[in-house]
Amino acid sequence: MIPFSVYMHEWLYGKNGYYRHAYVGKGGDFYTSVSASRFFGGTIAYHLLGLLENSKLTLPLKIIEIGADKGHLLGDVAQFLSALSVGVLQDCEFVSIEPLPNLALVQKKNFLARIGLELRVCSDLDELDVDSSDCAFVFCNELFDAFVCEIFRDSKMAYVDNHRIFWQEACEEITSLAQRYGVALGQIPLGLKDFIFGLTSKLARAKKWRFLTFDYGQWGARNAIDLRVYENHQVYHFLEVQKNLEHFYQKSDITYDVDFSLISDFFESFGAKKLFFEAQGKALLDLGLGDLLQKFSENTSYENYLREVSKIKPLISPGGLGERFQAIGFQGGLQAD
User: What's the rounded Cα separation, in Å, for the pair 18 and 155?
Assistant: First the structure.
């Protein structure tokens, strides 16, 4: 019998784990904002250029994505930087933090083929090199909902034996975390604080840095078990399929809602300043999506413009990804504003 977190780690990251063979997109088990529209990455690039123009960041610049899957978002950012500016791309170093070797190879291959530049891939934060002459822009999409967790209920935690869930008295560590995180019922993310500490410790050496992330969740604990499984774009609540876990194990994605208040508390406790927290739709518009679309409309046919707008709508529309996903941003560094 093992804690649920161990089972979830093997499910997602083990030798035959789901993320070693997952296909993200409309032909896979689920799709993300990245697979919906290349203007998701384009908006990040447009925002980044604004930071450079206003000296919030300066060149040379490290552009770092964490959890890049096949590298499509990083490629979108690089491609829009090239299209929207002159000389910026050449003063940027593109870096991916990717622990899975198979994905690291795919990311390198895709980035070289698409952008014509070498992508540096670090297997973990320890390999990330940042010094006082650097500025850094770090981003990720749907990263934190993939951190392994324990399931907590009535002072008990979930254990797994032969793909079956059993509830036993929670250990002292999980009970303490549940109290600290304000969780009476739900998921207790593991490794989140250590990860953010490792990242901010690296970034603290930079002149200036920005961090931007998008994920499914809310501010504060929901106090509900909201684990869910994705298979062929069908969403199953974990409690509905707990008696049939073997069917989904390592074949489907498993995820849960992110508590952004925890992310904010950890970043701020390590010296970062929170810049904003808002629904993805509003965040994308605030980051410049509308202006980017206007520029695009001036340089393409009306048919192409309408085609791209139709792809963007789910990213910003109420009830869609634009409302259910949230965005949060932080800044820091030796010369932070």
Answer: 30
**How does 52-80 read in b/e, with b if 16+ C-beta sit within 10 Å?**
beeebbeeebbbbbbbbbbbbbbbbbbbb
295-305, pLDDT tens digit by residue? 878 877 878 87
Contact 5, 191 (CB under 8 A): no
User: Which letter does DSSP use for residue 22 in this model?
Assistant: -
Apex 27 CA angle, 23 and 32, nearest 5: 65
Cα angle for residues 125, 109, 86 (degrees, 5° grid): 85
How far is 259 from 273, CA to CA, in rounded Å? 18
Q: Do 170 and 155 touch, CB atoms closer than 8 A?
A: yes
pLDDT value for 324: 79
Judge contact between 98 and 59, C-beta under 8 A.
no
Cα end-to-end distance, the chain, whole Å: 50
The DSSP line for 111-136 is HHHHHSSPPEEESSGGG----TT-EE
Q: Which residue has the higher pLDDT, 30 or 203?
A: 203
Angle at 129 between CA 53 and CA 22, to 5 degrees: 90
